[in-house]
Design brief:
alpha/beta; Spore Coat Polysaccharide Biosynthesis Protein SpsA, Chain A; 5-stranded mixed beta sheet; 15 strands
Length: 282
């Protein structure tokens, strides 16, 4: 039904624990999903063998050796066995509500994402425990923080959606590409769905020491500037606030007021100028 794909970081230290937790959660989904790991960083091939999932090592990179998201998407479209693709970051834990939510979407074309829950997890999760999901939901209630709608860690879309996925050579793990993708979806009048209410994803908190340009909460440096340039700046960036559909337990609904008004203004030129100036100042 669904092909999940990602580009892991090297499996070292805390990132090793975090990525193993994430991948294990994907393999627990039912119906069973195809999983593809891209890249040749340390530990990727071993993880693919351990979890019996597909590994595609050859992926385009920048001159600094960072994988390109556009390359992974193109390869996933060619290699996936299923018609629905899910890209997500390799630190994201998925739960059973994912499949149920995707089944509610009957549109031929769409792009779907949602906000994540930020949670501190510093040890491997026992996924053989039948209560593992209930325990994680309890942890969310106790210590989890809902991330702002400006950062998206997953996207669900039909495999044959070239209008959206014909993207520039964005660098993975750097800001800008996800916000550009939402803008492009809205500009092409393809339904952009906010699934925050129906899909619970957990982002396992970590530092950014894997990058020489890592700072608290993000990665800066020349590859971030490259992404912003490829996106043509903040004018062509949106967030989940700009989604024109919301997925609820009863199916797709239009956003409530006043959010519905802001969503309609997404492509209104003066409004975009104002938002782009605001983002530059943040």
């Amino acid at each position: 039904m669904i092909t999940i794909f990602t580009i892991p970081k090297p499996f070292r230290g805390d990132i090793n624990i975090i990525q193993r937790n994430a991948i294990k959660s994907w393999t627990k989904l039912s119906p069973k999903c195809e999983v593809i790991l891209f890249g040749d960083d340390e530990g990727v091939v071993e993880a693919a063998k351990e979890f019996n999932i597909l590994h595609i090592p050859n992926i385009e990179k920048t001159e600094l050796g960072t994988p390109l998201l556009s390359s992974a998407i193109n390869l996933a479209q060619k290699s996936a066995r299923n018609e629905i693709l899910l890209y997500l970051n390799a630190d994201i834990i998925l739960m059973s509500d994912l499949i149920l939510a995707i089944q509610k979407v009957k549109n031929q074309n769409f792009l779907m994402s949602g906000q994540r829950w930020d949670v501190d997890i510093n040890q491997e999760i026992d996924f053989d425990n039948p209560d593992w999901e209930d325990k994680l939901r309890e942890r969310i209630r106790e210590t989890g923080k809902l991330h702002k709608p400006t950062g998206m860690d997953y996207f669900v879309f039909p495999r044959n959606l070239p209008e959206i996925l014909r993207m520039p050579a964005f660098v993975i793990g750097r800001p800008g590409w996800d916000n550009w993708l939402i803008y492009r979806t809205r500009a092409l009048k393809i339904p952009m769905i906010d699934a925050t209410k129906t899909i619970t994803i957990i982002h396992q908190n970590h530092d950014y020491s894997h990058s020489p340009y890592g700072k608290k909460g993000k990665v800066v440096g020349p590859e971030t500037q490259k992404n912003l340039k490829l996106a043509d700046g903040f004018f062509y960036m949106c967030s989940l606030r700009d989604a024109d559909w919301v997925l609820t337990n009863d199916g797709l609904k239009r956003p409530p007021y006043p959010r519905r008004i802001f969503a309609k203004l997404t492509l209104f030129y003066p409004w975009r100028q104002l938002l782009s100036i605001k983002r530059k100042l943040l």
